Amino acid sequence: MTTQPEVGVPDFVLLDNLTTDKFIENLHLRFQHNKIYTYIGEVLVSVNPYKTLDIYGAQHMAQYRGREMFEVAPHVYAVADACQRVLRQQGRDTCVLISGESGAGKTEASKFIMKYIAANTTQVHREYIDRVKNVLIQSNSILETFGNAKTNRNDNSSRFGKYMDINFDYKGDPVGGHISNYLLEKSRVVGLQPGERNFHAFYQLLSTNNAYTKKFGLNSSAVYKILGNERTTAQDSKLYSLTNSAFNALGFAPAVVDDIWSIVAGVILLGELTFSETGEGQLVVGGPVRACVNALGVSEAALRSALGGRVLAAGGELVSKDHSLVDAHYTRLALAKAAYDRLFTWIVQQINKAIEVPSGQWGGTLIGVLDIYGFEIFETNSFEQFCINYCNEKLQQLFIELVLKQEQEEYAREGIQWTPVAYFNNRIICELVEAPHQGIIAIMDEACLNPTKISDQQLLEAMDKRLSGHKHYTSRQLTPIDKKLKHGVDFRITHYAGDVTYAITGFMDKNKDSLWQDLKRLLHSSDVASLRDMWPEGGTNIQKTSKRPPSAATLFRSSMSALVQGLQTKEPFYVRCIKPNSLQTPNTWDEQLVRHQVAYLGLVENVRVRRAGFASRQRYDRFLKRYKMLSQYTWPNFRGTSDRDAVMVLLRDLQVTDVQFGHTKLFIRSAKTIHGLEAARAELIPSIVVLLQKLWRGTIARRRYKKMKAALTIYNAWKRYKFRQYISSLQSELTRGRGVMKSWPSAPRGVAVALIQGAYRRWRAYLVLKPVPRDQWHQLKLKISAASALKSRRSHWGAARLWKGDYLADQTYNDKASVYRSALSSLQRSQNIGKALFSCRVHKFNRHNKLAERCLLVTTSAICKLDANTFKLLKKPTPITEVGAIRVMSSEAQLVVVSVPSARNDLVLGLVCPHDQTDLVGELIGVLANRYHMLTGSEAIVEVESGATTRCTLGGKHRALQLPASEHAPVQTPFTHAHNVITYHPASARA
């Protein structure tokens, strides 16, 4: 869109020779080229094209995101982006005020603003944000269905006022919202002007293929009184599906949706009820009564009773009063209007629950979007048009106060050079309506409070009497020569938008807005849960008195005052909507109609004020705080005395000249200057943020370090205390056990229990070893290893005697000890087998079933078989690490089987003991187990056979090895064999 050539002037402020004709000529020229948006500074003028334009897609949104208004072509997206930027950059609440006649495109403009705000969010927590956006957008569909209708001026006219606050988090993303609705035109439910349609909900319910039509006996082709001459269309069927989809998106339960459509059906059927009187004067209710009570969920008797009469509480007693035909018709219509009005209000409440800010989440900044009634002038203007036009007067007054009056008054107050611009102030019209005691609303309220029944004509007479001198009010009685006004019916108010003639008929009833308690009790008793919840006052005791409720006009006046008061606290943005013709057709331009709207909207005066005025004004302190980082003379702090001096120095340094200095504020004429300051500030903010983050993170880190250090000191003191406590408990346990820890107390967390237990074991070992001579400690280790391996499974293993180890070196055991020592020395040099730890003579049984006398030598690393005479090495030594298991007998037999899995050939040995000793098995086991553990780090496998049989492997074959039976005769050799069974004969059994 920004690449397309501009037509005419995109900003009316830039027009040459500003006149109303020039203004309308430029507006028409742009309209002819589909340029429907034009600026007046930051006010957007929008002309309804009555056709679809391709200027609202995602690619068009991207062109306006983060761009200043003067940088891009006029568009409603630019207003939405500027509105959101003020909220994000300055943290100020903003609002968009959309005004114009009915049919000028206000509702569509609000939709586009909502669409842009919803789409312009960050990617953080996208799922949640998408839900909020969807809810905000979908709520429009529901509100249009139940609150919009076709009028003679607009096919989708909002028949209620809507103001939506959208809440944003600190990132500027929507987190919820709230909708306020104003004065639904409920009289439309029971009365239509020719050519108009009722609310869209009725026609959507009666659309084709709708299950509800059959459920409640309705027919899409039938004629219903409250729907006038209009019928459903294919578009209504599509919109019905969209409405139900919106209900689903907002979380309405299916049962609740059923209740809503049931109530709509009940209102249609109420319009079909008829009344007649019997000859005795009894009132008879006719028509689709059963279908009606089925839709409303009430009993047939209760409905007939409520429509046929009323019950009054007088003096503590209940009095029944039957209705006349007129009263019955009034009751039926009042019930239909009240049910639909309460339904609409309840739907808005449910939508608010769906879009409210979650509890505990910050939603402090707001963007308000006001889409409220346009100014209306119909053939017959009733109470609703009076309220709607009064609302527009209030909004016009707000616009005048904020844009024209306050601005010019501020220039004078601040001493700024200024040429005043004349404008019409409509305060006098607002006071005509709302002034206390003298305004039209006050006169109507007095009439409603009168104990006698005041007619509409009497109300008009009272207004004529009180307002006869007002120049903006007249009637036929006050101006008899005005033939256009009807006697006793019409009065005219000269609004800022023109003269409007109102028919006083119905003003009293509509202002009272009363509904008899019988009808409230009827709806409260409904089986339709939602309808019952809409009427809580129906549960009040019939004899309980209550205050008279405020009149409809008073409630509307209060809501308008609250709305204006809330809007005054926000930064306003304006969209002024203009309809080019009354036929709602594209490419048609009615200059008189447009000229009239330009005049009463005050657009030309707005341009004059804008051209003569200033784009921005800010207090010196706020301006300085926001922009002081742009100059080295004001950052971080100005050394002067006043904020005004600081701002002057700042602007002089930045070479900004299009400003004027007021008494308390700085006035900047050009918007480009503001945008330039904002751009320069935005460029510096990241580095300042990084600096602040660095300083703050450093502060936090130092605080955390101090806390951690203090916590560590406390923890260390506590840990030392607990350790001392634990040591004391250990000392007590040692005292009780007389130096033996029978049970270990539970240790506090962090105590190295294994270290203390190791120290304890070493201390106990020291006490045990202290009496043992140092030279016997090595032998003690071997005995401990033997004891651990044998585990009391062998009763005699030489624990009590002195272990010599290398018995072959002992002359008393080996008479060739000198030869052995010589051979051992030679063997140690050649084979590097290490120091001799154990040696003795053995009887060896080999794989060839032969017995041989040999010598066994165990060194620090290997097991060696030596010749019994020469002591030379026989075969290669067997590393101790290759020993798989050691098998011995539980008896005193000196039989040892050393299993070597890798050789598949075990050492089957019968040890030869010295004459003074009876056992060498324990000593051999101790030496092998100790060395095996030292070399491998694991325990050697020692098998102790408790019977008389064990096993061995010789030549890869498994052989049985046994001790002889005691009754066998003595033999000469240590080993005998028969049938693969080897028998070892202990020395005591040999002859």
Characterise this structure.
The chain is of the alpha+beta class. The protein contains 29 helices and 31 strands. It has an eight-stranded mixed beta sheet with strand order 23-22-21-20-26-25-24-27. α23 (620-627) packs across α24 (643-654). The protein is elongated and about 165 Å long. The protein starts with 19 loop residues before the first helix and ends in a 7-residue tail after the last strand. The model has no long low-confidence stretch (mean pLDDT 85). InterPro entries: IQ_motif_EF-hand-BS, Kinesin_motor_dom_sf, Myosin_head_motor_dom-like, Myosin_TH1, MYSc_Myo1, P-loop_NTPase. Belongs to the TRAFAC class myosin-kinesin ATPase superfamily. Myosin family. Residues 560-582 are annotated as: Actin-binding. It is a peripheral membrane protein. Residues 7-682 form the Myosin motor domain.
